[in-house]
Predict the 3D structure of the following.
Amino acid sequence: MKTGIRNPSDFWSGLIYIAFGVVVVTEAHDYGMGTALRMGPGYFPTVLGGILTLIGIIAIVRSFRIDGEPIGRLNLRSMALIAGPIALFALLLQTAGFLIAMPVLIFGSAYASPQFNLLRTALLALGLTAACYFIFLKGLGIPMPLLGSWFGN
Amino acid sequence: MELLTNLEMGFATALSLSNLFYCLIGVLLGTAIGVLPGLGPTATIAMLLPVTFNLPPVAALIMLAGIYYGSQYGGSTTAILVNLPGEASSVVTSLDGYQMARNGQAGKALAAAALGSFFAGTVATILIAMFAPPLAEIALKFGPSEYFSLMVLGLVVAVVLAHGSLLHAVGMVILGLLLGLIGTDVNSGIQRYTFDVPQLADGLNFVVIAMGMFGLGEIISNVQTEGERSVMVKKVTGLMPTKEDLKRIAAPVLRGTALGSMLGILPGSGSILGAFAAYSLEKRISKNRAQFGKGAIEGVAAPESANNAGAQTSFIPMLTLGIPSNPVMALMIGAMILQGIQPGPSVITEQPQLFWGIIASMWVGNFFLVILNLPMIGLWVKMILVPYPLLYPAILVFCCIGAFSLNNSEFDVYMIAIFGALGYIFAKLKCEPAPMLLGFILGPLMEEYLRRALVLSRGDASVFITRPISGSMLLIAVAAIAFVLAPSVRRRRDEALQE
């Protein structure tokens, strides 16, 4: 007889549901419940948040009682190296500009792959930046500054 | 006769030069992205959605529909040639399709898939034209309580048909419903869950959620394992099926079309269910039973027809009721709202050109797929061969620019990063993102209908049960839950949705 968490998928998602549910219900408290006749803005979220919390509790209880498949480890490196460069792109777009944000995004994310190759990535960055400049900035007129506020623009 | 005049109007719209052009572009773009392994239709559409924002509504929706068929078609091509199905509904195709490719019959498999899809698409187009208007007429009589119950039913069926754990599917739906509430409440003007972030006042953008959860989450999952790829066949020949092939696939295509059309209307994973059902049916009744799994052409034709028929009939609830039956339709509804069209039964009467134009363009799009894609197969093979380490940074770039262009703001780019990470975590926890996206689209609508129904009934919640249509829909929903919770069905559901 195993003890402890027997279904990690249930356990962790249960925690996420409870966290969301509790935040939702607490926040909704300030919005005003209203009555059934005149539903306040807090009514619907309170009901849903309550159900979500309940589901989370069921999932956690179940995770100690019924076996589930093991789940793989979160690959934090992949997560950071994909989501990170996207956030960097957003950060750099107005400050450094398109011409810098693009290569940062491409190099950063390409580095996540075990087959990272500097030359190949450099060519990709060059080609993609040029192509996107012509298609999106010139062609579709998307307002991204080529060089941003750091360069006095 | 009214049907014919309506279709005529539809074709007049769809065959206008500019709409033909957008349909063609949609089909080509959809196929090009859809053949890339690991990118299913939902991710493809989410990525390409921003491209359509500046178009007029009819053209935008025609193009999106084209992207949808194109990406499905591209997914089957990849399933046949490299055994890497882009999404669940092509899994079945790869069973026999890939075996055929290994036997040097790739051309035949592709042709069977294309012809089966085209036939199914034609039938499904006619079905939509026949059944959508009467359904919309009934729906026009719906009050808020009927709509609320209908959405509950839709979400329940989606949960029942979702993969994996029921509990998680319910959790994800509710999470989606809640995310949909972020932003300014239409009735009170109060900002809910914006946490004083001004960009959240208008709510989260559904494109951002779809891109992050379906597109980026997938990339984070794959980046460690995917490398170079090899395709079985460098050159695809023998695209013209022989008379004997046509004879062999005729009946499976017919059966697949019938099954797929029916199952496609159901919310949830309609087209996937159709493909599986069609394949197992053929496996049971075909004369060439023994060949299944070793490269039977029937095993490609039937699920592909079912798949495509289901993809199209899933438009019926979307166009007539404004209820999405799968994540792709959820994106379509989102696109309609962005274009200023309120999805629902009134579309058919208020915007007949749009409605019939989309329906006619479905047939046109399928036609393009057959005549263009088979000859262009060489190009698609090259697309498949692009190494993943080059491919995914390019996809990220398009996602970032696409997200930025939604509101010309970096905020949405940050959001796709967050939802990408979330999508990855949920994928690890085996929580499906599809029910969440459905919930997200339906959240604000459900609240609004609930509120209105309760105002009309003076706060009496029993209207949902006492109004006959509303009551029976809730009854069906309860029955569906009770049904899947029954232990024997539960076991069989797990087996059926195994893949």
User: Anything to note?
Assistant: Chain A has five helices and no strands. The CA atoms of residues 6 and 67 of chain A lie 5 Å apart.
